[in-house]
């Protein structure tokens, strides 16, 4: 290795060269006979001169010492810089190696799995298999959970959780509190901060978020409690008050409905539900519940239990939403006697009061007389369907009985197609006859009404579906390939049946006279 690549040897050379130069300088002074030369006449030598020359020599030695210290510091800096360069080269080399490793493309074994939509592209096939098996078992990314370091940085969106809750319950023991929920994504554990919202539900009693009420905005106080129709899965309450109103319904099964039941009971029996913006909690929501692959089985059963105890005549809306017959539904929702006795004992208000005073966003539809799938007697394995979404053209499609094929016929003549919404901020769609062309059209019912579209139909069970204004019929036609279409045309005598009827509707004579007109 060349000497200049060895910093300590360079320093030694510099020191030796400096000392030699100094001695040479002194010798030259002696030869020239300068006054500060070391060669003097002994007779002229006296004490003061010796001291003066010693002082000068001491000063020169001191300057040489300082120069050597500076050289030493420079050598240390050179060595430090050399070390940093070596480390930098090592890191660059390692980074290049990592990039090379990342360039390795692994075959994606589970392209349709929700787990690998945003995560896992760098996993080997073996690691993918382990991660997928854990995901199917638990419903979230257990693999990444097991590999997270304990000292990882975590974004925390929470405000103090307990203090606002305790303070509010101290003010009013009859209030049941929910924090604001944030979401931890099940696949990559990213934290998503949710906006403040009220907790609500639809007529099937599935939970949903409601916009903040105008009354809350009018307060101009972001910390004010939010009046909420229902509650989600996390709550805080005064223990004694919760006991007084019956805690939780022990007759619920597995999943769903218990939070809505508690919300209704609290409001109807002297309490209230609030969401506190000053209290947040992050919740890891699973992609699926491992203990029940089809949640609708339990939610449906629990929803009927809630409806039968707390919803009075509004309970029919729950049957409509789940497309169940009102009588003999085939669902065993358990013994209700103790819950009905509790309602009577607490002197609770009716559901009509709840709708009008707590949750007016839910719309009651008292005029539904027929609901469920709707089939033409010419071919009964195909059903009316809402068609592609987005889109507004209903179609005829092989029957599967899910919500896109649910039809709701009103005694007032409207016919809804698609899952029942019945909410002020989520309007149902009505089938209309445009008056020209051969295709029916779906329009939001409120818009169809305001525009005066042809949305009213005459229909009885086992009869034609006739538009009251255009007198055309909703029928089916087949092309040369045997594919059927839902069309508007001059009535040919086709007949329709709807899956469920309310009370005695549909048991009268059909509309043959209208078909003949």
Overview of the molecule:
- The protein has four domains: 3-98; 105-153, no CATH class; 162-357, Spore Coat Polysaccharide Biosynthesis Protein SpsA, Chain A, CATH 3.90.550.10; 368-516, Trefoil (Acidic Fibroblast Growth Factor, subunit A) (Trefoil).
- Strands 7, 8, 9, 10, 11 and 18 form a six-stranded antiparallel β-sheet that branches. It has a four-stranded mixed β-sheet with strand order 2-1-6-5. The chain has a two-stranded antiparallel sheet with strand order 3-4.
- The longest helix is centred in the first third of the chain and has 56 residues, at 47-102.
- The relative contact order is 0.07.
- It has 517 residues and is of the alpha+beta class.
- A hairpin with a 2-residue loop joins strand 7 and strand 8 (379-385).
- It has 14 helices and 18 strands.
- It is elongated and about 140 Å long.
- The model is unreliable at 34-45 and 508-517 (pLDDT under 50).
């Amino acid at each position: 290795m060349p000497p200049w690549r060895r910093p300590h040897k360079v320093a030694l050379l510099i020191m030796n060269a400096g000392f030699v130069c100094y001695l040479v300088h002194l010798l030259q002074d002696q030869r020239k006979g300068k006054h500060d030369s070391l060669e003097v006449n002994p007779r002229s030598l006296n004490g003061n001169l010796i001291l003066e020359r010693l002082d000068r020599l001491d000063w020169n030695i001191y300057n040489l010492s300082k120069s050597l210290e500076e050289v030493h510091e420079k050598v240390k800096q050179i060595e430090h810089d050399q070390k940093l360069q070596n480390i930098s080269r090592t890191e660059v080399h390692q980074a290049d190696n990592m990039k090379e490793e990342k360039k390795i493309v692994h075959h994606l074994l589970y392209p349709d799995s929700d787990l690998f939509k945003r995560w896992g592209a760098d996993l080997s096939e073996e690691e993918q298999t382990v991660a997928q098996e854990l995901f199917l078992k638990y419903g979230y990314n257990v693999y990444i959970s097991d590999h997270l370091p304990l000292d990882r940085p975590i974004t925390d969106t929470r405000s103090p959780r307990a203090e606002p809750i305790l303070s509010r319950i101290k003010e009013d023991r009859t209030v049941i509190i929910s924090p604001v929920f944030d979401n931890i994504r099940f696949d990559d554990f990213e934290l998503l901060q949710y906006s403040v919202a009220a907790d609500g539900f639809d007529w099937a009693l599935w939970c949903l978020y409601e916009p903040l009420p105008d009354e809350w905005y009018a307060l101009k106080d972001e910390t004010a409690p939010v009046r909420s129709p229902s509650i989600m899965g996390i709550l805080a309450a005064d223990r004694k008050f919760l006991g007084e109103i019956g805690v939780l319904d022990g007759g619920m099964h597995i999943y769903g409905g218990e939070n809505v039941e508690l919300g209704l009971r609290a409001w109807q029996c002297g309490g209230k539900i609030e969401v506190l913006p000053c209290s947040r909690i992050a919740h890891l929501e699973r992609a699926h519940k491992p203990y029940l692959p089809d949640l609708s089985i339990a939610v449906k059963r629990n929803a009927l239990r809630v409806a039968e105890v707390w919803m009075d005549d509004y309970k029919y809306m729950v049957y409509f939403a789940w497309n169940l017959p009102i009588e003999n539904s085939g669902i065993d929702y358990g013994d209700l006697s103790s819950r009905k006795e509790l309602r009577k004992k607490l002197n609770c208000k009716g559901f009509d009061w709840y709708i009008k005073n707590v949750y007016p966003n839910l719309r009651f539809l008292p005029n539904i007389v027929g609901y469920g799938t709707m089939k033409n007697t010419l071919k009964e394995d195909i059903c009316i369907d809402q068609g592609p979404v987005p889109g507004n053209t209903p179609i005829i499609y092989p029957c599967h009985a899910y919500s896109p094929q649910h039809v709701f016929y009103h005694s007032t003549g409207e016919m809804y197609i698609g899952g029942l919404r019945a909410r002020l901020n989520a309007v149902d769609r009505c089938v209309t006859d445009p008056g020209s062309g051969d295709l029916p059209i779906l329009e939001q019912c409120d818009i169809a009404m305001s525009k005066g579209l042809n949305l009213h139909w005459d229909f009885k069970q086992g009869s034609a579906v006739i538009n009251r204004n255009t007198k055309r019929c909703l029928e089916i036609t087949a092309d040369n390939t045997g594919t059927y279409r839902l069309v508007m045309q001059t009535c040919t005598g086709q007949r329709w049946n709807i899956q469920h009827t309310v009370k005695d509707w549909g048991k009268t004579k059909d509309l043959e006279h209208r078909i003949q007109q």
